[in-house]
Design a protein that fits this description.
Layout lengths: L2 E6 L6 H17 L3 E4 L11 H12 L7 E5 L1 H12 L8 E5 L17 H4 L1
Parallel strand pairs: 1-2, 1-3, 3-4
Length: 121
């Protein structure tokens, strides 16, 4: 059985087709045919927002099998880890890898949908 890898892109105009596709291609080359890499296009990549990205991720989570590995890049990493914390997939994950996840909060990446730890009280 091939292990699933869900790669969540970063944000910004062209991120899916001009930037993160290179990371996915490299990952596929290194991992080989024993892995199925899922690389969904996230909604409105030029202006990433937590609610629509979380909804897209929940749809992706529904198709994951035990042992799946999650990889998030940049703002995709921050959204991924928050989505998993809020509503974990219904499978046993093999791992979560966050690449260049930004700081969310004062002085970092602004987000209306993700609160910094301090804001949660």
């Amino acid at each position: 059985m091939r292990r699933q890898v869900l790669f969540v892109q970063g944000g910004g105009q062209g991120a899916h087709d001009e930037w993160d596709n290179r990371l996915v291609d490299g990952l596929a080359q290194v991992l080989g045919q024993d892995h199925e890499i899922r690389y969904p296009r996230m909604p409105d990549e030029a202006d990433p927002a937590y609610p629509p990205w979380k909804q897209a991720l929940e749809m992706e989570f529904a198709g994951l099998k035990d042992g799946a590995v999650l990889v998030g890049h940049s703002i995709g990493a921050a959204i991924l880890v928050n989505a998993v914390a809020a509503d974990p997939p219904h499978c046993e994950l093999g791992g979560i890898f966050l690449v260049a996840a930004p700081f969310i909060g004062d002085g970092g990446w602004p987000s209306d949908g993700i609160e910094s730890r301090e804001a949660r009280g």
